[in-house]
Write a structure and sequence with these properties.
Elements lengths: L3 H10 L2 H25 L16 H10 L10
Length: 76
């Protein structure tokens, strides 16, 4: 595996459309995975959007981990 900085050089060597496609795929993967985890934890999967914003995901993860478990949805 190349060093960390060389990985970004490889991304810069790609055509623009390919670099945007890779970044969009990574963001989509992040949304899906954190949405699944949030859904299994009893929270709305929309909370996965918070993990895309820098510096928001880690405090949110701590809040979830130290909060009350399991979260139950209100009965309708």
């Amino acid at each position: 595996m190349p060093p960390y900085l060389q990985q970004f050089e490889l991304l810069g060597a790609l055509p623009d459309w390919a670099a945007y496609l890779i970044v969009a795929a990574l963001i989509g993967w992040t949304l899906c995975m954190f949405g699944v985890v949030a859904g299994k934890a009893g929270r709305s999967p929309v909370w996965g959007l918070a993990f895309v914003v820098p510096y928001v995901g880690l405090p949110l993860l701590w809040w979830w981990a130290l909060g009350r478990w399991p979260v139950r949805a209100p009965r309708s």
